[in-house]
Amino acid sequence: MGTIRTLISEEEIQAKLKEMGEAITEDYQGKELLVVGVLKGAFMVMADLARHIDLPVEFDFMAVSSYGASTQSSGVVRILKDLDQEIAGKDILIVEDIIDSGLTLSYLIKSLNVRKPASIAIAALLWKEGIQRVPIEVKYPGFSIGPEFVIGYGLDYAGKYRNLPYVGVMEGNPDE
Ligand code: IMP
Ligand code: MG
Fold it and tell me: Is residue 100 flagged as an active site residue?
């Protein structure tokens, strides 16, 4: 395995999630908020962000197909696990680990909009600046990063490294 260079530290991530959680708490006062995590990558963000949302909020998860073992977006999105509940009339906040091409989210937003929620907004820890193939409006953005492939804090390479408490970049050949 190659070495891993820290791109965003654990402290930076936690400080940002606190800010995001406080903004969400302010914006959704008196609303019926359902926070939707996109598995598997968003599991870390969900757990830490949730602790900074001071509202009677509900949580649910969706799972969509990702890149498999490749580091390139295929553009093909498949829902592997749908929400457990109806969302009509609810305010939805989708939580993502990272927005790359934007294809996954635009597909999710489209398919959730059909169910007539009151609103849909996005919180994403990371987004790759300038390479979205479809424009996505991120209401609660974390960090903008370059086009490099990152791992850690929920993000995987071939299923591994999700448990790192920071976001890093693999240097050298990851298969060695
Ligand atoms: P998109 O549809 O191209 O926006 O891809 C979004 C999904 O691809 C994310 O939810 C991640 O699961 C995965 N992904 C995109 N970029 C990276 C990366 O740099 N490292 C790990 N996973 C990534
Ligand atoms: Mg993902």
Answer: yes
Of the candidates 87, 94, 88, the one whose C-alpha atom is nearest the C-alpha of residue 137 is 94
User: Is residue 96 within 8 Å of residue 122, measured between CB atoms?
Assistant: yes
100 CA to middle of ligand 2, Å? 10
**35: its two tokens:** 């926070």
Assess whether the C-beta atom of 155 lies below 6 angstroms from ligand 1: yes
For residue 134 the two structure tokens come to: 């479809």
CA distance 61 to 43: 9
Per-residue model confidence as pLDDT tens for the chain (176 residues): 579 999 999 999 999 999 999 999 999 999 999 999 999 999 999 999 999 999 999 999 999 875 555 555 556 678 899 999 999 999 999 999 999 888 889 989 999 999 999 999 999 999 998 776 778 899 999 999 999 999 999 999 999 999 999 999 998 776 65
pTM of the model: 0.92
How many angstroms separate the CA atoms of 56 and 61, rounded?
17
| Fold topology of 3-171 | Rossmann fold (3.40.50)
- Contact at 8 Å (CB) between 57 and 29? no
Q: Within 10 Å of residue 32's Cβ, how many Cβ atoms?
A: 16
CA of 62, nearest ligand number: 2
* Ligand 1 contact via 102 beta carbon (within 6 Å): yes
Give the ligand at the shortest distance from the Cα of 43: 2
